[in-house]
Amino acid sequence: PAHVFERVHADYAGRRRGVMGRLREHVSGLSSMANALEENLTALESRLGALEDERAEAMLRTAVGEFDGERWEHVRQDVESQIAGLGEQRTSLLSEVDEVRTLLASASSEPE
User: Fold this and answer.
1) Helix residue ranges per DSSP H, the chain
2) Residue 110, pLDDT score
3) pTM greater than the 0.85 cutoff
């Protein structure tokens, strides 16, 4: 019946307003968190770029004969291990940034 639907709908709408109100209370904290996560992501991406450069430099030094095969393998394994670890951290940070942005978008787009 319509009156049952309206009662349940009103109940859920009220709950939703409550949740959205609580979410809006945390917008400032979420914004700060998003900024911190984005700064961490920028720093991490900078470190990844430096490691890529380090690998390219070692590759070039090997090609011109400065590094022997053993030294190249040592540098390559070390750098690629660091790149893999930072890549996992990057994936995790990107996920966190997306979650926080989604919450912020929800808090700012919903009517009160």
Assistant:
1) 2-24, 27-63, 69-109
2) 56
3) no
